[in-house]
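Design request, tokens follow.
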């Protein structure tokens, strides 16, 4: 089973695997952004973050490789009268020429060999003054049962982010938090929270 089939299977039910509410950490950074900014959500799944930021008046685009998840996102957006652009793309082969003011990720876990490429593409896709904000499971998450991959090569550490974004302003922390995000993420978790700003 490839990763698209894997995720389509996880999202096939009518409920929302990670709930309807935006990821708390991503949402808590909203005051950093000016209205009408262009936001790109990567690995956005069923769209809880995209819906939240679109409702707040941002111009939101979401990418995911699961067509099943993006169909659920679009159905929810339609019901709420929101216009969100979605693209079904495998981020391992993403080619981007557009710039965004904010790039958001919650729990997109790529194999370590592909993470480097993705982070370089994120660097290049940000406008000056733009933010990359994300929450991810750390390698320590192997000691918890609140969600996430069980393969260490798909989990991250602080250095994975610190080694990139040279000359950017960075606030990258590993923390223990309590997750309450649908059936998918429940309980104590070891996460990495990333706030990165492109200053020039
Ligand atoms: C744990 S889910 C998180 C979904 C969403 N960000 C959230 O927090 O509700 C991981 C998501 O990443 C997507 N994903 C994983 N690998 C991907 C890839 N190579 N390209 C695009 N999407 C990918 C999956 O389809 C899935 O929607």
């Amino acid at each position: 089973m490839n990763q698209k089939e894997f995720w389509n299977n996880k999202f096939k039910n009518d409920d929302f695997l990670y709930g309807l509410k935006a990821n708390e950490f991503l949402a808590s950074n909203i005051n950093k952004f000016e209205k009408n900014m262009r936001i790109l959500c990567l690995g956005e799944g069923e769209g809880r973050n995209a819906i939240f930021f679109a409702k707040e008046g941002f111009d939101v685009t979401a990418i995911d490789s699961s067509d099943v998840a993006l169909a659920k996102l679009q159905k929810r957006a339609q019901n709420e009268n929101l216009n969100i652009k979605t693209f079904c793309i495998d981020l391992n082969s993403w080619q981007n020429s557009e710039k965004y003011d904010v790039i958001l990720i919650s729990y997109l876990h790529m194999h370590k060999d592909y993470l480097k490429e993705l982070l370089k593409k994120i660097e290049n896709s940000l406008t000056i003054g733009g933010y990359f904000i994300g929450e991810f499971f750390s390698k320590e998450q192997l000691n918890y049962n609140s969600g996430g991959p069980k393969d260490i090569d798909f989990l991250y550490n602080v250095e994975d982010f610190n080694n990139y974004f040279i000359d950017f302003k960075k606030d990258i922390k590993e923390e223990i938090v309590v997750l309450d995000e649908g059936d998918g993420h429940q309980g104590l978790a070891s996460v990495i929270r990333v706030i990165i700003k492109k200053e020039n």
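Comment from the thread starter after seeing the answer: thanks! The longest strand covers residues 169-181.
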